[in-house]
Design a protein that fits this description.
Layout: H1 13-16, E1 20-22, E2 37-39, E3 46-48, E4 60-62, E5 68-69, H2 71-77, E6 84-85
Parallel strand pairs: 1-6
Antiparallel strand pairs: 1-4, 2-3, 4-5
Length: 89
């Protein structure tokens, strides 16, 4: 779990508090013609559409699709920020 002074938060606690997230193969990062990657909202690690070992191609996306969070950051902050996981099943 992240401590209260974790630099990854960068004053984003209020905007990220209480969000619902989706994780799974149907929510893989998909590139489009205007950009080829996105970043974890917290640690800024890249998500890319390719399958290279040094990139992340899966992660949690907020239900509105505005935020992406890597697995590590999700698990570090889920309790502190009151996050829930939404299942499409």
């Amino acid at each position: 779990m992240a401590d209260t002074k974790d630099k990854r938060l960068r004053d984003q606690e209020n905007s990220l508090r209480g969000l619902s997230w989706v994780y799974g193969l149907n929510h893989r990062f998909a590139s489009n013609p205007h950009w080829d990657n996105n970043h974890c909202t917290l640690c800024r690690e890249s998500f890319k559409a390719d399958e290279a070992d040094d990139t992340r191609n899966e992660g949690y996306t907020s239900l509105g699709g505005q935020h992406w969070v890597c697995k590590r950051c999700f698990h570090d902050f889920k309790d502190k920020l009151g996050w829930t996981v939404h299942n499409w099943d």
